[in-house]
Structure to design on (135 residues):
């Protein structure tokens, strides 16, 4: 499992590196497609029509939990909704880590306010594209 996580992170990082080098001169549609591929690769889920990042994160959690423990959906849902000592859910934590991964891979930085407003791949592409174009 650890090898799969490392492989997925490397593949996603390579996609982000390509976006960083080509993103300034690319269309918005290209950036959305590339970011979706990078996000799904990092989350180790197949690409779907879904673009809501929270839902993609939950799909990833469910897939990983089912693979490792074969837990029923009800148990997984309970784990996703459980909060840590900072009152942050597992889904929220993973979304934050995913956004940090994208920031690092693209060499950009979102303010806290911008990061909170990112709900979809399109939102992510819009904000990332703007920063890539501005340099």
């Amino acid at each position: 499992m650890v090898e799969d996580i490392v492989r997925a992170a490397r593949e996603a990082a390579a996609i982000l590196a390509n976006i960083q080098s080509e993103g300034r001169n690319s269309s918005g549609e290209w950036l959305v497609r590339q970011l979706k591929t990078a996000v799904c690769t990092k989350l180790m889920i197949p690409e779907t029509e879904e673009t809501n990042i929270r839902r993609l994160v939950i799909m990833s959690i469910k897939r990983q939990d089912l693979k490792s423990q074969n837990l029923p959906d009800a148990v997984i849902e309970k784990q996703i909704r459980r909060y840590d000592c900072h009152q942050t859910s597992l889904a929220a934590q993973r979304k934050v880590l995913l956004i940090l991964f994208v920031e690092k891979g693209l060499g950009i930085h979102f303010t806290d306010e911008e990061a909170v407003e990112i709900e979809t791949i399109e939102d992510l592409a819009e904000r990332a594209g703007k920063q890539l174009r501005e340099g």
Q: What stands out?
A: The chain has one domain: 2-134. Residues 2-22 form the longest helix (21 residues). The radius of gyration is 15 Å.
